[in-house]
Design a protein that fits this description.
α3 runs antiparallel to α4. This protein has a two-stranded antiparallel sheet with strand order 1-2. It has a two-stranded antiparallel sheet with strand order 3-4. The longest helix is centred in the first third of the chain and has 29 residues. 60% of the residues lie in helices and 5% in strands.
Length: 255
């Protein structure tokens, strides 16, 4: 696809993203429970049950087997590789947010890890005191003043909001590497991201299991943890961080 056509698709995606996600969260009324706007709870609970079954039958066994088969150092290297391939998207979103410092840090990290860090398998940038700077188009929408919208649980991807779901879609197009690399190289980031997600699921199996299988209401628990963590990350002042593990933290975004 010509570059102009791809850039046009990105622009259209941004417009669609703003149109879909531009809604404020009601503080009271139908669908609002304890500060959470969840008007699609019945549908969300059905999707949650699907995700639980998927996790129990496929993701959890694969993650435990993956973590058991690979040394921690190898898992870490795969995670670094996936994160490095996602850095250009971080640069783009940082620029869209007007965060020039963040864009600069991510650019230097990408160059450093792609060279000294051997394509990103080693996090040389962190060793050189260049801390990771992570952001996405969901955060870009937040910076632009777009409301959180309704809580959603997405098939496979898990907890989200209308704003962040839109952000995930737009982020499919925000990584410049997507337009530079040909197949199969263009899919390396996605594959590495899935592998890194499996590693995270395997390492934190006890914590995730306690959320999904030991909670009296795993849907409400996952919803609470996700929203608290996301709001804390964005610094919107609505909550404090409750827990650092997203129960569906399979990062397939790569690029």
């Amino acid at each position: 696809m010509p570059l102009f056509a791809r850039l046009s698709r990105v622009a259209i995606s941004c417009v669609v993203g703003l149109s879909v996600a531009a809604c404020a969260v009601p503080t009271s009324g139908p669908g609002v429970v304890d500060g959470v706007y969840d008007p699609y709870e019945d549908r969300n609970r059905r999707v949650h049950q699907f995700n639980r079954n998927l996790d129990r039958n496929i993701v959890r066994p694969a993650a435990i087997g993956y973590s058991a088969a690979l040394p921690d150092e190898v898992e870490d290297s795969i995670g670094h590789f996936a994160a490095n391939l996602g850095e250009p998207s971080v640069v783009v979103n940082s620029l869209l947010q007007g965060d020039l410092r963040g864009a600069g840090v991510s650019t230097v990290r990408f160059v450093t890890n792609s060279t000294i860090g051997l394509l990103g398998f080693f996090d040389a940038a962190t060793e050189l005191k260049l801390p990771a700077h992570d952001t996405d188009f969901g955060e870009t929408l937040f910076v632009w003043g777009v409301g959180e919208g309704a809580y959603l649980e997405l098939p496979v991807l898990g907890p989200s909001t209308s704003r962040n779901a839109t952000g995930k879609f737009v982020d499919l197009f925000t990584n410049p590497l997507t337009y530079i690399l040909d197949s199969p190289e263009a899919y390396y980031g996605t594959i590495a991201g899935v592998a890194a997600g499996l590693g995270t699921r395997g390492r934190f199996s006890d914590t995730v299991d306690s959320i999904l299988y030991d909670s009296a209401d795993s849907y409400a628990q996952a919803r609470l943890i996700y929203l608290q963590n996301r709001r804390f990350k964005l610094g919107d002042g609505q909550s404090v961080q409750a827990q650092e593990i997203d129960p569906f933290a399979l990062d397939t975004e790569g690029f």
